[in-house]
Amino acid sequence: MTTNTYNNDKIKEKLFYKETDGGLKVYFMPKEGYTKKYAILSTNYGSIDNIFIPIGEKDTIEVPEGIAHFLEHKLFEEPDENIFDKFSKMGAYVNAYTNFSQTAYLFYSTDNFYENLELLIHFVQNPYFTDENVEKEKGIIAQEIKMYEDNPSWKVFFNCLKGMYEEHPVKIDIAGTVESIQSINKELLYKCYNTFYNPSNMVLFIVGDLSFDEILRVVDKTEKKDYEKTEDIHRVYPNEPKKIKEKFIEEKMTTSAPLFYIGFKDYSLGLMGEEEVKKGIITNLILDIIFGPSSIFYNEMYEEGLIDSSFGGYFTGKSTYGHSLISGESKDPKLVYDRIMRLIDRPVDAILKEEDFNRIKSKTIGSFLMGLNSVEFIANNFIDLYFDNFLLTDYLNVLESISYRDIINRFNEHFTKENVVLSVINPL
């Protein structure tokens, strides 16, 4: 298959693309003169993908919560040498993460890049699961889960999600529960692996001062050839009611000051590509205008001692879920919540002024252009947007197209008293 090239003169970046015979999509952004090189191999598979039809089967199965994260841990297991040691010996830093919608394996290095790339592809495509190493991992991950359960910042976040969502698995901890991981076995891990780690469900993105021909040579040499290309994997998500589950969730834990999350559940779902990305940008612009460090609200609350510099908000979402989260530390979280409710009750043009929109939009454009100087920023944002059927190189075009009217319309749709949840952790 021929190599495709995407040029974006506005951001002065180029993107090379080729799909391998096995279906793996390989993207490369050249960065001449950069010493750091970054590679990320990701699968369109996250913690919410627990009900699906395995490849080669006809019936839907439901797997234990936390299995995607468990699988990520187990892929680092090799019968002989430790994967981390192998990368370290070649001067590379390696890591991985699982979130709600994807699992990614990455490394960066200044030297031995192609050797490290070969190792990355090899270990991700050669799982080694045994009854013994799966049982051993359960104890390790159970400890990790308990550690997070004892973390007030983690708890206040997931309590907010549990308040917003009745059925959707986004409310479940990415690592699962101590109980759910007990039913994971090597057969289930291989079933999930064979379904979601099919190359046609994966993407490899590389950025740095490198040769695309050499990248493709390494991929061709290392990639397993016995995969069959698959059509879209059939995933099942439960029907999520529009309404929120619980308005207010409060707990006590060991913490120096009360912590809070205020969540606005998104009703505008089912979008993909440019529409979804645009919605996310618009919502984050609104949150920055109203609650960012330069906003009147932030500064008034800060002066009163009701919030500190930890206060802030962001929107996140995919086609099946979405929410805006405003969080921080406060001596009186309920008063912060009341102030926000009073704020969103005001006329929208009093909250969102056009001059503030223009200023924040310009700032966001500047931040994005600055981000293009960072290989980490480029790689991680490329992967996140890619599974929304969107290329990072088109991001600036969408950002620049957003109008003041878009902001007003989205605010009226999303920030209401009906779809809001308050989660608080108070000190013991």
Automatic annotation (TrEMBL):
Residue ranges of every copy of the Peptidase M16 C-terminal domain listed in the record: 183-362
Domain Peptidase M16 N-terminal: 64-177
Taxonomy, superkingdom: Bacteria
Pfam families with a match to the protein in the record: Peptidase_M16, Peptidase_M16_C
Protein name: Insulinase family protein
